[in-house]
Amino acid sequence: MRPAPASGTMPPMSKARRGADPLPATAGMRVRVGQHSAAGTKGANEDACGIRIPEGGAAALKGIAAVVADGVTAAEAGKEAAEACVQGFLADYYATPESWTVKHAAGRVITALNRWLYGQSSRGGRMASTLTAVVLKSGVAHVFHVGDSRAWRLRGRDLEQLTRDHEAQVGERTFLGRAMGVEPGVEIDYRRVELEAGDVLALTTDGVHGVVPAARLRELLADAARDPEATARAVVEAAHAAGGTDDATCQVLLVEAAGEADEESLYARLTELPFPPPLEPGMVLDGYRILRELHASSRTQVYLAEEPGTGRRVVLKTPSVNYQDDPAYIERFLQEEWIGRRVRSPHLLRVLEPAGPRRFLYYVTEHVEGRSLRQWMDDRGPADLDTARDFLGQIGAGLQALHRLDTVHQDLKPENVLIDADGRLRIIDYGSARVAGL
């Protein structure tokens, strides 16, 4: 898991803009955002929140995401769990394949994140948190919810709670009935909400709505058009002024223009991207100039190429035309790309962002100048003891990084390990990898 932002802070945001992407998504959507989080009387803030407004094609394809999480106080590592929920969702959602719908992509990310939290808890130090996220795309708000944080929509003078609290009543006491990291599987509430210009969306933790009545919250959110950031701060301050002692967090998203809903057209175009034809040296695919073929099998082709604009060497992996009518194969190919975008280890091959809009189905990885472990063994013969220990340590580090993401490679062999000129090993080929819970 990548390092998480400090509780109550948000990752750096970039201004959304229309790029040169030919795909017709999120056209004209304009959103202003703000957020604020403050600790209660117990000291450390166990809430976390984050908003991501990507640039260019990512804004069109994936939309704008906001998420709040409230670490479960009874858990030993509630603060860390909340931070992991926010950081993990915002990072991994934007790494999902472009052809996945918002519901499918976010659902898979939350499922995998829950499994990771549960795995960490089983190793000691229970990690549990609520999670409420919203993705704004193509005139629609997609709401995902686990726990008792809340999502709201203010339209005119009408304030609507978009989520239901997952609570269990035992006698006169109320307990959290559902949370991230408590069980190996998690049930995710999902809701699709049509947007209009002027709508105000808000995400709050129970430190806000536990003490601020809905009528008062409506009054505060009505000022969002002036300054969403100031509105979010005012909501949190109102919670503590009302006697609230818990951590309090509020996010505000003001929809200035809802954009054009064109989800079906976008999804159809992405899932129907043609397979690239067999490529030869000198040919150009979406700006990538093919240098030579590195590997070919009945399932895929791998090419060395030059990246447009930079000229750096990268590797293109393309699907075999033998499977162009096989939906399960295409889904597996897309999942392989997603796994490669998530990994962060010097001993795992990374999948890169494409240089521009894709008009064919393929993905891009870093280029490792070297040879496979199989070639090394054929050239050098058996490794001595020190070299074998070094190699096993590097391979083990790569596998541990995968396992921290609850991913099992399932096809580890000398052909799937590369050695560069400095002796660094990288595990490649995630085509057979399995992600727990998916």
What do these coordinates show?
- By secondary structure, the chain is of the alpha+beta class.
- The protein contains ten helices and 23 strands.
- A six-stranded antiparallel β-sheet has the order 13-14-15-16-18-17, covered by helices on one side. A five-stranded antiparallel β-sheet has the order 1-12-11-6-7.
- The longest helix has 21 residues, at 102-122.
- The radius of gyration is 24 Å and the shape is globular.
- The model is unreliable at 1-26 and 263-268 (pLDDT under 50).
Structure keywords:
6-stranded antiparallel sheet; 23 strands; Transferase(Phosphotransferase), domain 1; 5-stranded antiparallel sheet; globular; 438 residues; alpha+beta
Task: List the SSEs and their pairings.
Blueprint: E1 30-38, E2 47-52, H1 57-62, E3 64-70, H2 78-93, H3 102-122, E4 131-137, E5 140-146, E6 150-155, E7 158-161, E8 167-170, E9 173-176, E10 189-194, E11 200-204, H4 206-209, H5 214-221, H6 228-241, E12 248-257, H7 263-271, E13 284-285, E14 288-296, E15 300-306, E16 313-319, H8 327-342, E17 351-352, E18 363-366, E19 370-372, H9 373-380, H10 385-404, E20 407-408, E21 417-420, E22 425-427, E23 434-435
Helix pairs in contact: 2-3
